[in-house]
Amino acid sequence: MNIVGSLRNSIAPAALSRREVLGVAGWSALTLKMGLLDFASSLFAGEASSGRKPRVQVIFVRPESDRYRMSWPGASFDAEARQAEYTKTLVAAAAKLGVDLEVRPLPLDDADSIAAFLEQTAKSPPDGLFASVLHLKSWPRVEYILKNRGSVPTVVFSPLGTSFAKQLQSVRGAPKAFVASTPDPQWPAFGLRMLRAVAAVKQSGICIVAGNVIEDRLVKALGLRLRYVPLKRWTDELKTAASTPQMQEIAKYYALEAKDIVEPKTEDLLAAAKNYIVARRIMAAEKCQGISVDCFPLLNERRVACGPCLAWSKLLDEGLVGGCEGDADAAISLLLSALLLGRPGFMHDPAPNTLRNTLIGSHCTCPTRLDGFDKPHAPFVLRSQAESASGVAMEVRWRPGQEITVVKFRSPDTLALGTGRVVADVSGPASTACRTAVEVKVNGLADARSIKDDHLLFLSGKSDEQWKAYAELAGLKVAPV
Fold first, then answer.
1. What letter would DSSP give residue 283?
2. Under 8 Å CB-to-CB from 415, ≥6 apart: which residues?
3. Helices 266-285 & 3-10, crossing angle to 10 degrees?
4. What contacts 63, CB < 8 A, 6 or more positions away?
5. Strand, coil or helix: what is 237?
6. What's the CATH code, domain 19-49+203-480?
7. Contacts of 438 (CB under 8 A, 6+ apart)
8. Per residue in 185-218, is it b (16+ CB within 10 Å) or e — as a string?
9. Exposed/middle/buried for 401, CB within 10 Å: 0-12, 13-18, 19+?
């Protein structure tokens, strides 16, 4: 009998429902339409919560007149209607993202109203400020607000007709601020997502399971907490974790959804599911939204029979962080991708193909919801972990031709960034390294041997402009990969 049949017979039947479920992390508050069983994303609901939503203030900087005759953006620009439209967009985005939005409906234009607003902001600083400037002559007020807002991260939205190059140059370089001059009326939703990401990172923690120490470290550029716990914690938790119906359901889901199962047996899938449960328990106990385990010595010294490859794939599909080899920078990159883009990243080892000047990224774990947490999963095959020939690993199939973004956070304060396109999904006999292998042509890379980082991320879709905007808002540097 094959493994799917074995699981069907050995595990009590359960409906494979698809419904809206909430991610567990307090920073997330993200509704994920997952193809997992009900328990799979709600098992630890409410744990690792930060306790509050990010608070963002919204202001409109413009004259109170609703018509601007013979001045930009002109009398045809309905200021009241546009303000209402942008407010509606922001309110809808805040509800989706879990942001506490405070909208000031009266526009700011005179010195007294601006001074009163800044005084209030100084007394009770929000996590972020969204300022929409709706008149060309309002830019001196915007400059004043940016200079006197304190350290509040600020997004300025300037729809077409409300700024020239001269105005944009006047605020260029303002710290922890990003100015979006664009005709896109829906852009404010992404601006709010950026502010929420900056605030949410400061409320987040990633548990690094490695070495022998217990300590907290602060990533100063982001305000992020890294919680280090000994590697022995992982094996101790595995020993005390009893088999549960939840583990059986996880194993059943992956057996049914996989295109094929090559090496793993039923007991391997159950062990892989236990890794997921243990990871979530450690995250909850340490009040973290992600985890990275130094898995190499665990497998190399045979301290575990199954590595966490499948567990990491599942965490990433849920909008959380499952990182390999105790790499803190890579784990931070995975967190930023989830918060900023609403999609998971593929952490990989980069191997240049010198004959084609391409980059092959490979690893034994990979998320399946490549296009977004609310999108269908990519096809995947269940394999063994390549180096140890044990446990369960993910062979996820990427689409040749799809655009991708290459990114990694480099301590202490830099984002390595690039774009490219998938040349081939490297699977079968050609894939002699890790199980998921993707060949990418990186744009502008003269020599693939020039790649500087291990454990880069591949992200589905071209998102370099979004990353640059976030870096400017968060005060990070940007460098090519």
1. H
2. 407, 408, 409, 467, 471, 476, 477, 478, 479
3. 60
4. 79, 107, 109, 135, 137, 138
5. helix
6. 3.20.14
7. 346, 348, 360, 361, 362, 398, 422, 424, 425, 426, 458
8. eebbbbbbbbbbbbbbbbbbbbbbbbeeeeeeee
9. exposed
Locate tokens 């020939």: which residue? 389
Task: Please give the CATH architecture assigned to the domain spanning 55-200.
Answer: 3-Layer(aba) Sandwich (3.40)
Per-residue pLDDT band for 71 (boundaries 50, 70, 90) equals confident
| Pair of tokens at residue 288 | 């973290």
Copy the structure tokens of residue 458: 């591949």
pLDDT tens sequence across 324-366: 999 999 999 999 999 999 999 999 999 999 999 999 999 999 9
- Outline which parts of the chain fall under CATH 3.40.50.2300: 55-200
What gap in Å lies between CA 471 and CA 214, rounded to an integer?
Answer: 31
Q: How far is CA 116 from CA 61, 145, 146, in A?
A: 14, 11, 15
Q: What share of the chain is helix, strand, coil (3-state, %, to 5)?
A: 35, 25, 40
Average pLDDT on 116-124 reads: 96
Write out the residue limits of the CATH 3.20.14 domain(s) in the chain.
19-49+203-480
Q: What is the pLDDT of residue 70?
A: 62
